[in-house]
Design goal:
elongated, alpha+beta, 3-stranded antiparallel β-sheet
Length: 103
């Protein structure tokens, strides 16, 4: 079972040094890109909600399935525009995914 390591909000006191059990369960939601529901949590300190997805590298990706294929394409020397055409993405989204992969 996933347990969040900290509160993701920088203004919260539980962001840097989280106490044990600083959160409580707050339901779940069904994303369009995954089969299983994603659990949500509420911070007891700041009262804000967040999900398991917040801590993933593909957070806020509309097409997380394209990340691996884009990486393989760019590693083999294909350009951004050609990769965008192949993956049926816009050049801008390809560039943003490339920046995220580079980080």
């Amino acid at each position: 079972m996933f347990q969040p390591p900290r509160c993701p909000y920088r203004s919260c006191s539980q962001h840097c040094k989280p106490a044990a059990k600083f959160f409580r369960k707050h339901g779940s939601y069904q994303p369009r890109c995954r089969r299983r529901p994603v659990p949500r949590f509420r911070c007891k300190s700041c009262g804000r909600t967040f999900s398991r997805q917040t801590f993933r590298l593909d957070y806020r990706d509309n097409r997380p399935d394209a990340n691996r294929r884009l990486f393989d394409s760019l590693a083999s020397g294909t350009g951004l525009r050609q990769s965008a055409r192949t993956l049926k993405l816009t050049v801008r989204s390809t560039e943003l995914k490339f920046r995220k992969l580079a980080r």
